[in-house]
Design goal:
Elements (H helix, E strand, L loop, with lengths): L3 H27 L2 H21 L3 H19 L5 H22 L5 H8 L7 H30 L1 H6 L4 H42 L3 H26 L3 H27 L1
Helix pairs in contact: 1-6, 1-8, 1-9, 2-3, 2-4, 2-8, 3-4, 3-8, 5-8, 6-8, 8-9, 8-10, 9-10
Amino acid sequence: MFAAYLMTAWAGGTIVAVVAGVVGFFVVLRGNAFFAHAVPHGAFAGAAGAVLIGVNPLVGLGVFAAGGAVGIVLLGRRARHDVVTALTLVTMLALGALFLSRSREYSAQVFALLFGQILGVSPDQLVTTGLLGVGCLALVALIVRPLLLASVSPALAASRGVPVTGVDLVFALVVAAATTVSVPMVGALLMFALLIGPPAAAQRLARTAGQGLVLSVALTLVTVWASIALAVTTDLPIGFFATAIGALLYGGAAGAARSRRGRVE
């Protein structure tokens, strides 16, 4: 459980959990679950394109994540947001399929971006992930007050002079940065589960935004740590445990919230 490669996995999982907990709190608060699904999955196409031209897949992942996220926000101002999100997602997935079809050799590195390889994280990759994670959290800290207001009430935020479109664009870049941080380690599928499950459970339990943010990070950490431990001891996929634990946390939080309301009434 404490071999060198596992210690690296614990450290990488902790970085991913903190970033996913913070960003996921705002994703759930803003009702951006579909958006958070589209960006990591669509960014997979960028990694495939990078492999095709001989570039580091992380570069392609970041470019497509940022481009897709910003494009959804800008186009969503002039059309239905869900439709724009879906069209952006399928366009990027189509490009990914095209890039993979033109590649002469299969790349396990690209495949791992869907399902993750947290137990195979190298120390060098851990350093890069840590720096990107710090940058992502710094960006959130820079806009946290207007982001919180714009997430709860965009109309009120606009009336108080908050540049709502600008905040939306910056948050889109935050989601893109979180994708670039997390997907190489946990994969696009698991990243989406971490952005939604534990943060949604936290918001059912918390009474204030501050409590919700702290609890979101705590529950995401518990989910990732428990998933790694269970995956190592049972030899089952980490994604199974992470999604199952997230669902159980939300179910328990929903039940606790209903019980609390019943006592108040």
